[in-house]
Design brief:
- This protein is of the alpha/beta class.
- It folds into four domains: about 170 residues, Molybdenum Cofactor Biosythetic Enzyme, Chain A (3-Layer(aba) Sandwich); about 50 residues, Molybdopterin biosynthesis moea protein, domain 2, CATH 3.90.105; about 80 residues, Beta Complex (Molybdopterin biosynthesis moeA protein, domain 3), CATH 2.170.190.11; about 70 residues, Beta-clip (Beta Barrel), CATH 2.40.340.
- Helices cover about 20% and strands about 30% of the residues.
- The strands form six sheets. Strands 1, 14, 17, 18, 19, 20, 21, 22, 23, 24, 25 and 26 form a twelve-stranded mixed beta sheet that branches.
- Helix 1 runs parallel beside helix 6.
- The protein is elongated and about 95 Å long.
- The two termini are about 30 Å apart.
- The protein binds ligand LQZAQKY5 and molybdate ion.
- The site of ligand LQZAQKY5 has 26 residues, from strand 14 and helix 6.
- Pathway: Cofactor biosynthesis; molybdopterin biosynthesis.
């Protein structure tokens, strides 16, 4: 595997400040995963390994921007045939015109295009309702880009628009980073996969919630399963996982069946981050497994797991996938954002005309606030007053 840590700290960061934890998650990875060449369609959602440079001028030839006539010099013009998109045509003599379609190659010698609605034909003579200025309704070769020009930087996520642009300027394949593979292990005997919670059993909320978030960060989910509250089962699941990154939920704290720390010790893992000064989610952890793969331990409380995902899992996966770190935005605050006395808080918020407003139902075990949220506000210790500003993280 290629995810060997280099710049990671030798000793685990314990209860470290939130910004440091995010940095540590990226630094845990020396370099992004190797590159692969993929057919355009297969590259959707992956990350460009190098800048996308134009393989050709765009347009690749002078083109008519309108349906009408390509004309040479001032009118009236003598009509000399037509040229459709996909065809090419011989040179146009001064005083001549050819009927032309939008997107068709402009004949050499043409000085402009007269739109269909601005011209009138009289036998083989074309009269313009106004003048055709030089270059009128022509998209000149290289108007959008020149061959070799960088269009997008390395690290760009391949969206449908990127696929279209790559095709337009001549690409058949794209070079992207291999996706980091993830196995999601959901810990807890109390979890139900269907039906109503009750009698001590709760529905697994993280099995449905986390995979799309991990995928949006560039990961390929290769497995998702429940692991019962059993030390040996957990140790073996971690030891034998084929994934670049194992993501666990639950078992991070000190309960009677919270075996994650012991299982990591038994597998010879090295803790890089062991607790973060953030609420919710402070028991989150990041470890390096003996073969250089990584494990992110998310707390079991659902909003705490989300906090762990944005703090540790997404930065780590982004780095493996070759993406730049997720940006924090700074935004005005419209209603005070309550803080923790010593730790960062991640609060579900909505955006209003006046700024960010916190949502109710933001407890660690709740998802009701998050389900309405437009972002997570990063609230420093002590909170942010109503006229202040706060950083926000996008919720995937
Ligand atoms: N003595 C202490 N107890 C706890 C501390 C502490 O510092 N000292 N921290 C609390 C905090 S904060 C959190 S968060 C939790 C973290 O607990 P674990 O990661 O060990 O998670 P579990 O105990 O397995 O579960 C906690 C809670 O979450 C529910 N859960 C678990 N998985 C899911 C899931 N997939 N979907 C929905 N709900 C889930 C589980 O049923 C529990 O209710 O520890 C505190 N305790
Ligand atoms: O992570 Mo715990 O709140 O902080 O539930």
């Amino acid at each position: 595997m290629t995810t060997v840590a280099a710049a990671a700290p030798v000793r685990a960061l314990r209860h470290c400040p939130w910004p440091q934890a995010r940095r540590a998650a990226r630094l845990a990875v020396r370099q992004p995963l190797p590159t692969v060449g993929l057919a355009l369609g297969a590259a959707l959602g992956q990350t460009l390994a190098g800048p996308l440079e134009a393989l050709t001028d765009l347009p690749a030839f002078d083109t008519s921007a309108m349906d009408g006539w390509a004309v040479a010099g001032p009118g009236p013009w003598r009509l000399a045939g037509r040229v459709l998109a996909g065809e090419s045509c011989g040179p146009l003599a001064d005083g001549a015109a050819v009927q032309i379609a939008t997107g068709a190659q402009l004949p050499p010698g043409a000085t402009g295009v007269l739109r269909r609605e601005h011209g009138r034909t009289d036998g083989v003579v074309l009269h313009g309702l106004g003048e055709v200025t030089p270059g009128q309704d022509v998209r000149p070769r290289g108007q959008e880009c020149r061959r070799g020009e960088p269009l997008l930087p390395a690290g760009t996520v391949v969206t449908p628009a990127v696929l279209g642009l790559a095709a337009a300027c001549g690409y058949d394949r794209l070079t992207v980073h291999r996706r980091p593979t993830v196995e999601l292990l959901l810990l807890g005997d109390e979890l139900l996969d269907s039906g109503l919670p009750g009698a001590g059993l709760v529905r697994d909320a993280l099995g449905p919630l986390l995979p799309p978030w991990l995928a949006a960060a560039g990961a390929e989910l290769i497995g998702q399963r429940r692991v019962g509250d059993d030390f040996g089962l957990l140790r073996d699941a971690i030891r034998h996982s084929p994934a670049d990154v194992v993501v666990t939920t639950g078992g991070t704290a000190a309960g009677p069946v919270d075996f994650l720390h012991e299982a990591l010790t038994a597998t010879g893992a090295r803790l890089l981050v062991d607790g973060v000064a953030v609420r919710p989610g402070h028991p989150m952890l990041l470890a390096e497994l003996p073969d250089g793969r990584h494990l992110v331990g998310l707390p079991g409380n659902p909003l705490a797991a989300v906090a762990g995902a944005v703090t540790l899992a997404l930065p780590l996966l982004g780095r493996l996938a070759g993406r730049p770190g997720p940006e924090l935005r700074t935004e005005p605050v419209a209603a005070a954002l309550p803080g923790h006395p010593t730790d960062t808080r991640l609060l579900p918020v909505v955006r209003t005309d006046r700024g960010l407003v916190p949502l109710a139902f933001d407890g660690p075990a709740m998802l009701r606030g998050l389900a309405l949220a437009e972002a997570l506000a990063v609230v420093p210790p002590g909170g942010v007053p109503a006229d202040g500003r706060a950083e926000t993280l996008a919720t995937p």
